[in-house]
Amino acid sequence: MSITTVIDTPEAASQRAKANSMISPRFYTTDFAAMDRLDVSSVRAEWDKMMLEYEGDNNHDHFQRDPGFGAEIHDMSPELKQEFLDFLVSSLTSEFSGQILYNEIRKNINNPDIKALMGFMARDESRHSGFINQSLRDYGLAVDLGDLKKTKAYTYFKPKYIFYATYLSEKIGYARYITIFRQLEKNPDKRFHPIFKWFERWCNDEFRHGESFALIMRANPKLLTGLNVYWIRFFLVAVYATMYVRDHTRPQLHVAMGLDPKEYDYTVFRITTEITKQVFPISLDTDHPSFRAGLERLHQISDNIAAAKARGGLVGLAKQGIWAAAGLATFTRLYFFPVKHHALPAEIRMVPAW
Questions:
Q1: What are phi and psi for residue 142, nearest 5 degrees?
Q2: Cα 243 from chain centroid?
Q3: Per-residue pLDDT at 351
Q4: Alpha-carbon distance 71 to 90, whole Å?
Q5: Could you give the 3-state DSSP secondary structure of residue 283?
Q6: DSSP character for 224?
Q7: Are strands 27-29 and 154-156 parallel, antiparallel or unpaired?
Q8: Whole domain around residue 107: which residue ranges?
Q9: Where residue 237 sits, what CATH number does that domain have?
Q10: Are 211 and 50 within 8 A, CB to CB?
Q11: What is the Cα Rg of the chain in Å?
């Protein structure tokens, strides 16, 4: 099912950004006192090297539009334009979510290591969200970020849930952006908007953010053992399933870039799986036919729920409940699908080599 709600005014763009659904980006808050107690001394050498990279700020001049930016915006069909705008709003919300979370942690703690890290990551996310909002402004659809911060609902996550979810979000964000960049690098005729030219260096910021959370988790190994492995498993399934369902709401966007949504998603999953072996002791077998069938089932259920909502009334409401139960059952089967186990590498840091 493709995008149905039209984004044609700044108010509509803001409402899309504020929406809270199973597949929309969320805003988070956490336990600041627990964040303040984090100790990274066991990974000090790798930590200090990473902080020097942040201080070097190799992307300080990257998020500037060149004079020819506007001339490279191609005409789009109404369907493609709506899916692209939805992609921009969703990406903006995700980047701004990180900016808010990192900034709030920075302001509410005294731990010098974590405080400095959060400041650097908030800086990066501010550039990302601002750059996306410029492209929305080209269409007269810029989102009021101040209003979004004040009015969007926040979800409380324990620090360990922040680590699992945000680490995955940053790493899968890298995998998504680099896959799109490589595709359009090979097929420049399919680059219908210039923002994609910025994706390579942009996603290296995402990669480094993920490295930061990897070091935090490896410095606190209890986060990666025992019952916490079941939480890791939950977030892996949830993040992959959310991406799969969300991407299938934008079929025209992928076709325009010469990408098949399924193959694109599984390419991203494979890259993310290889990366996450640096910190997670398990990984999902996303190439197994039964696992893929489960994701496709969730996609179909999502379409059925949307159709039931559109129908409305008591029948529509009842069907929503039936399909929601089916979605939960399918997610549960995916959760208990056999995972792969592996030892963690001695050297934690990785380089963005894809």
A1: -60, 140
A2: 8
A3: 84
A4: 24
A5: strand
A6: G
A7: parallel
A8: 10-65+72-281
A9: 1.10.620.20
A10: yes
A11: 20
Residue 207 Cα distances to 45, 168, 234, 354, angstroms:
19, 10, 22, 11
Which tens digits make up the pLDDT trace of 111-161? 999 999 999 999 999 999 999 999 999 999 999 999 999 999 899 999 999
pLDDT tens by residue, 335-348: 999 999 999 999 89
- Three-state secondary-structure class, residue 29: strand
**Does the residue 211 lie in any domain?**
yes
In the chain, the number of structural domains is 1
Pairing status of strand 27-29 against strand 282-283: unpaired
Length of the chain: 354
Q: What are phi and psi of 338, to 5 degrees?
A: -55, 135
299 inside domain: no
Q: Which two tokens stand for residue 206?
A: 């995402």
Grouping H, G, I as helix, E, B as strand and the rest as coil, residue 27 is strand
Residue 294 domain-assigned?
no
- How many other CB atoms are found less than 10 A from the CB of residue 259? 20
Q: Indicate the angle between helix axes 289-311 and 228-247, nearest 10 degrees.
A: 60
Q: What is the pTM of this model?
A: 0.92
Distances (CA, A) of 329 to 141, 295, 297, 301: 39, 12, 11, 11
Strands (E), 250-353: 282-283, 340-341
Enter the DSSP assignment of 342: -
Amino acid present at 55: E
Q: What is the DSSP string of 159-197?
A: HHHHHHHHHHHHHHHHHHHHHHHHHHHH-GGG--SGGGG
Whole-number Å distance between alpha carbons of 7 and 82: 7
Domain-located, residue 320: no
Closest-CA residue to 214 (of 15, 71, 75, 351): 351
Task: Tell me which residues of the chain have a pLDDT lower than 50.
Answer: none
Show the tokens assigned to 258: 């010469």
